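Problem: given the chain below (147 residues), write out its structure.
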Amino acid sequence: MEKNKRISKEYCLAVTEILVILERFPKELTEKIPMKLMNFFRQIKLEDYEVPENTKLSNKAKAILAMLYRNYLCSETEKQEFDKKLLENEQEYKKNLREKYNPENLFKTNIEIEENQNMRQTELIEYEKPKWYHKIFNKILTFFRKS
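Solution.
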């Protein structure tokens, strides 16, 4: 890590996770990955970091693994299917962002919330007239309190 300070620790952790995974791959698959890239990964991996057995991969590690799979491990038809799936995921992500952050919807929901709050504030409170016997009882109580 000290050799190249421009590489983030997060990236180095992801590469370390990837190398642990690649160690479990059959040798025929790992040989498809260029040696120059593998040597770079080995150079920047964190020596003092041990990847726990049942840990979830970080997002960076997932991205690196996807890049390795697409560029070096899959066939041409698998590449096309992979690219198609990536495009679908990207479109779905953008659609969700548009729905979530659409200015028209944002203002509509804010206006509706304000209207609901105003309605709650201006609602009439029902006033219940005290019963005649409550009035008499309260008068008696005030008489005894004064004494």
